[in-house]
Design goal:
Strand content: 15-25%
Number of helices: 7
Structural class: alpha+beta
CATH class: Mainly Beta
Strand order of the largest sheet: 1-2-10-7-12-5-4-3
Largest sheet: 8 strands, mixed
GO molecular function: metal ion binding; oxidoreductase activity
Order of helices and strands: EHEHHEEHHEEEEEEHEEEEH
Helix content: 25-40%
Number of domains: 1
Radius of gyration: 19 Å
CATH architecture: Sandwich
Family: Belongs to the iron/ascorbate-dependent oxidoreductase family.
Distance between the termini: 44 Å
Protein name: Fe2OG dioxygenase domain-containing protein
CATH topology: Jelly Rolls
Pfam family, one: 2OG-FeII_Oxy
Shape: globular
CATH superfamily: B-lactam Antibiotic, Isopenicillin N Synthase, Chain
Number of strands: 14
Keywords: Iron, Metal-binding, Oxidoreductase
Bound molecules: 2-oxoglutaric acid, fe (ii) ion
Amino acid sequence: MNSGIPTVDLSPFFAEGDDEGKRKAIKIIGHACSEYGFFQVVNHGVPVELMKRALALSKTFFDYPTEEKLKSGPVPGTPIPAGYSRQPERSADKNEFFMMFPPGSSFNVYPINPPGFRDVLEEMFSQFVNTGRIIENIIDECLGLPSNLLTEYNDDRKWDLMSAFRYFPATERENTGVADHKDVNCITFVFQDEVGGLEVQKDENWIPVTPVEGTLIVNVGDVIQVLSNDRFKSASHRVVRQARDRHSYAFFYNIGGDKWVEPLPQFTTEIKEAPKYKGFLFKEYLQLRSRNKTQPPTRAEDVISIKHYSIRRQ
Ligand SMILES: O=C(O)CCC(=O)C(=O)O
Ligand SMILES: [Fe+2]
């Protein structure tokens, strides 16, 4: 099925010896990351049955009355809203979500019902971390970096997070599920139910990503764009609401907040190219980005994106 973005079979990375298969996959992913910033994967290691179960359980959860869902709302005073939340009324984004940090994190809040939801969420989280490592190694290869460079740099898994989303049906006047944005993190995984609605911007066009069961959508975020000095792009994407409720999961393979992010020497000094970004502390960027939501600027040009750090040349 033509879903609009390239599809890659990751099975060679789970078997010994298929070097030809690996080379092929690396070639498609390298091309996809520079042209689209997005691709999708099959045979990615996350069990398809687990993904289906996760969607079924989150649908059950989001169908509960609000007061029931709010029992697993964020603990007051925690810096990040783990558990169940709904986008603020004035936000353009119209969705509710359940967010978690790595299993064992003291921020996490889990609902008692539906039974099994917590186990499935925790299992999904660990599976995503494994697939994240594989993609990270592939990105090293695609970019011609020493193997393990990204894994050694990205050695703090505490900042990873996963969300289950429910988007409300479009109305006659509004259809924004998530307004267009670029992800801040390293690598994002998304899967959506059969309703669909995710769209990726390429050049001036919005490409709808057709839902295919068991497929994971992968995109590179701003961190990879900066490290690669724009070799790989963090693409704008959005969710357009449909006639029916739409459910999805997103996993954000992040980096530690204390990491310094700047173009790697392999793409600057070593090849005598100018850096396109100044360096920054990751958590400072996260803070600026979260302000876009908590105190939305009135002028569109004041919304913070990775351009905030770009070095403009005459
Ligand atoms: O729900 C989705 O399909 C994607 C959500 C998304 O882009 C995000 O949360 O950054
Ligand atoms: Fe996103």
